[in-house]
Design brief:
Order of helices and strands: HEEH
Largest sheet: 2 strands, antiparallel
Oligomer: single chain
């Protein structure tokens, strides 16, 4: 993850936008309980490299820069 991506990741995390950059977002159910205890999404444990879609992260960074998003310098 390059510096720009790290900054975008931190901003997405701060703004609760991680689902927008997650490669599992279309198959994710969030945290669910089907009777056998909770089932957590892939992003709840592990390193960002395991769940972040870096193309989406780059697009998120572009959107933040274009829209003047918070910390979108």
């Amino acid at each position: 993850m390059n510096e720009r991506q790290k900054k975008a990741y931190n901003l997405a995390e701060k703004n609760d936008d991680l689902c927008q950059v997650c490669k599992f977002r279309y198959d994710c159910h969030g945290c669910a309980n089907y009777g056998n205890g909770p089932s957590y999404p892939p992003c709840s444990d592990g390193e960002p490299e395991q769940f972040v879609d870096f193309n989406e992260l780059d697009e998120y960074a572009d959107e933040q820069e274009e829209g003047g998003g918070e910390d979108g310098n």
